[in-house]
Input
Amino acid sequence: MNSQVETAGESRGRWIAFAAAFVAVLGLADAVYLTVHHYTATPVPCSIFEGCETVLTSLYAEFAGIPTAAFGALAYFVAFSLAILAAYENRTAWKLFGVQVVIMAAVTCWLIYLQAFVIGAFCQFCLLSAITTFLLLLLFAISKVKRAQF
Output
């Protein structure tokens, strides 16, 4: 009986890790899209908010000459890699994934603050990235709650 509970818990853990990998790929696609637009200097289509270009050309769109979106792409790639490793039962990878998404969420909160109170405009692609990051954090939190129940 006990081994069945462990197997069910491991199955849930794998499902959550694979879901996190999928979400991370969505974030990676969004960040790569914004990075490409940054380097090609082409405006992004902004259909929900009118402030995309204001945000994407602001002082905060780069750090040390590198687009903020490129850092996001790297972060999402690392999150994806760690989630895949965790899906194949690497527990250390899942712990590192948790650290990664907490850092990503903290940076995301800062970037949302900048959009709202400093830049005064919002970018729909940036907000999509924020939602993606918070989904990753939620999946990690769910994994911890589920694990505590067993």
Remarks:
- Strands lie at 62-63, 66-67.
- Residues 134 and 150 are 25 Å apart (CA to CA).
- The first helix runs from residue 2 to 40.
